[in-house]
Amino acid sequence: MVGFLCLGETALGGNNAPLQSSPTPNPENLGAPWSFDLNSAYTLGSRIQKAGNLGSQAEYRYEIEALRNFRITGDYYLQFGIDYERFDFSRSNSTFPYAFTSLSGEILFSYWSGDTCYTPNDRLEIYLGGELIGDSYRNGPTDDRRTNNAIVEYEEERLGLGLSYTLRKGIDFEANAGWTLERTYDYIRSGPIYHSKGAPYFRVDLSFAL
Q1: CA–CA separation, 47 vs 54, rounded Å?
Q2: Residues whose CB is less than 8 angstroms from the CB of residue 29 and which lie 6 or more positions away in sequence, other chains included
Q3: In this predicted structure, what is the pLDDT of residue 146?
Q4: Residue 144 needs a FRET pair 20 to 30 A away by CA distance; which of 35, 109, 177, 180 works?
Q5: Among candidates 171, 177, 199, 165, which has minimal Cα distance to 128?
Q6: Domain locations in the chain?
Q7: Can you give the pTM of this predicted structure?
Q8: Are 185 and 154 in contact (CB under 8 A)?
Q9: Taking the CA atoms of the chain, what radius of gyration do you get in angstroms?
Q10: 26/168 Cα distance (integer angstroms)
């Protein structure tokens, strides 16, 4: 499924206080008026270059998405919905917030088609893929003038192997694991850019079509 355009986003980075297309539904679920997706991922700890005093930082990510689907014609859809996403980090300081949170309103123009994957049977799919996720956030108050209430772009790149299993019509469970190539913190207006080393990750996803 390919979707375009995201509007109306509020994002916060917490010191004191998201690019991923919507999942492709099983062909038998095409035309469902509502779709919901809940997913969570954990990236094992890795050091951030030029920030050795921080130590090894792990990451937890949670996301909930709800979409209302309107078929335009054939496999083309217009979708309206909301997306909540949160990143929590195991270590933080004045440069690296303990969390990022975003709440987005979404308008998507989408084309639904089957994945390119290996299918042992009509309920199980095995695939190899990549993922680029992240967003822009406003940091909270800090004692560092470069990062105090500053805009930071957070991004991570992943490669992994996964499987998707249809539990029953309209309900799919997905799990994948692989390697997070890099996580990047970019304070676009104040200068500091930090890159993490690679680390393994695990991700689970539960989607509903109603």
Answers
A1: 8
A2: 169, 170, 209
A3: 83
A4: 180
A5: 177
A6: 2-209
A7: 0.79
A8: yes
A9: 18
A10: 11
Nearest 10 degrees: Cα torsion 193, 196, 197, 200: -150
| b/e sequence 67-88, b meaning 16+ C-beta within 10 Å | bebeeeeeeebebebebebbbb
- Residue given tokens 């933080």 in the structure block: 92
3-state secondary structure of 54: helix
DSSP letter for 52, please. G
E strand residue ranges, 48-197? 56-73, 76-89, 99-111, 124-138, 151-168, 171-186, 193-195
CA atoms within 13 A on the CB side of 5: 8
Residues 85, 65 contacting (CB under 8 angstroms): no
Q: Give the tokens for residue 38.
A: 């809940």
Reading the chain (210 residues) residue by residue, the pLDDT tens digits are 444 444 444 455 555 434 344 445 445 445 789 999 999 999 999 999 988 788 899 999 999 999 999 999 888 899 999 999 999 999 988 888 899 999 999 998 888 765 556 888 889 999 999 999 989 998 888 888 888 888 999 999 999 999 999 999 889 999 999 999 999 999 987 777 999 999 999 999 999 998
